[in-house]
Amino acid sequence: MFKKAFWIPYEDSAEYPTMVKAMQAISEYCEKNGDSCTFTGDDEVEINGKVYEICQGYENGSRGNYGIKCKEK
Which domain of life is it from (predicted)? Predict the structure, then answer.
């Protein structure tokens, strides 16, 4: 019923994250936290054996900032 989702820190939150920037931010996040990640599609990443959908866009409650969200499939 509930799927795990988490926001990835994105440095330039005033600018919409392109897929390249999103992938770079996810890779850096995983490396920093000791997680392994493999990109399995343009909008999909596998982190520690779990598949997540990559969502870029407006972060709710953030006063106009963009972000990157990974949502478990």
Answer: Bacteria
pTM score, whole prediction: 0.85
Tokens of 17: 């994250």
pLDDT tens, N- to C-terminus, the chain (73 residues): 567 899 988 888 788 888 999 999 999 999 999 999 999 998 999 999 999 999 988 766 666 678 899 999 8
Q: What are phi and psi of 70, to 5 degrees?
A: -110, 125
Residues 48, 30: Cα–Cα separation, whole Å: 9
The beta strands (E) that lie in the chain are given as 5-8, 37-41, 44-47, 50-58, 66-72
Which of 9, 53, 54, 11 lies closest to 33, judged by CA?
9
Of how many residues is the chain composed? 73
Q: What's the DSSP call for residue 18? A: P
Alpha carbon 39 to its chain's center:
11
